Amino acid sequence: MLSDREILSVLEMLRNENLDVRTVTLGLSLLDCACDDVNRFQHKIYEKITRAAGDLVHVCDRIGDKYGIPVVNKRISISPVGVAGAPFSPPQMVDIAKTLNDAAKAVNVDFIGGFSALVEKGLARGDKALIDAIPRALAETDRVCASVNVASSRAGINMDAVLLIAEKIKEAANLTADKDGLACAKLCVFANIPQDIPFMAGAYLGIGEAEAVINVGVSGPGVVKKAVDRAILSDPDLDLGQISEIIKRTAYKVTRIGELIGREVAECLKIQFGVVDLSLAPTPNVGDSVGEIFQSLGLLSIGVPGTTAALALLNDAVKKGGAFASSHVGGLSGAFIPVSEDLNISDSAAEGHLCIEKLEAMTSVCSVGLDMVAIPGETTAETLAAIIADEMAIGVINKKTTATRIIPVPGKKAGDRAYFGGLLGESVIMPVNNATGGNPFVRRGGLIPSPIHSLNN
Prior knowledge:
44% helix, 15 helices, alpha/beta
């Protein structure tokens, strides 16, 4: 239970510190819709999604109004289409994506995730068809999100899949060249993908999950920043251990709010409650930035020396506070560092404080990876694949989730700006080493074996 003082502090978070429930995501299994007739499959998935999610938005809005806590996004995640739609060809997969888009519009959710494939050890027929369909599927829909898991600590890194998905990213960017490659913003490439992510673009419902489940993504970078600022103003001599404790207590309050909303939504919909994802997810709004927390901790800007250590402190404190607040913590949980979606991080990149190599180093201790990074459109598929492979290696070796959401912006070069709009924001295009060069390493293909610590049965 929260004390009266803590309740007042939560009210202050809601009024002045950008606290919200970032997303309530309905996970829905489509495995029982599987069949070998694409028209019947499309009919079955449309009917199931619209029936199960018909009241989702209304219930979220009603409960948000009840508690005065806005639920910003309502989303759906589904079983990986590479599995549920395994018999179908790439053009049929595109048609399936359009059906998913129509269903998302019918129930008025922001996004539907799960146009996904799990290929860390090899590509099955359905996986290959889905990956081939990704460029058109994302370019010709506006609410469908895709993810591909190309690596795991148990299996290693599937370099054939890495190069293939890099080529598809280039295709997707070119198909939406008039929108600065916007389709790529709806695609995440993962190592060790969790089965219960509520955040897009990576959300999908894992094979081991329930028939239907409610997962919640809470946020609050502005809340954490204000808590740190208040504490340091009150006692300028606080050490980092004490600041960590403050962040931990703040994360506890934010998590309790997320679980409160999620459980009530699940109860109203008569659906199982799943997890709370603790990730600090920024927006392009001033005061709602992860990057600003680093400045509150005493750094000139995110990206300067000390950034990785500060991010490790932040991530650890958020997870400890959330784990104490809920026994159902999952998803990614920690801190996102999406360049274009965080105004402060975007500015740091433009000012030269943050480069793609430093971002990669930071991903060794953060929740995700190279997120919403705009790079020159001339970057070759080989160089793009090598960037992805580097990020996957960090996840595989460290037994953690890492991901890339990279946009090679057609017709633009380093130093130009890319504009994605809305929650996706805008960013300077970051330079890439050897952007136009070849890379025989990634062309060798095959499987980079799993590390020795995977033999832990």
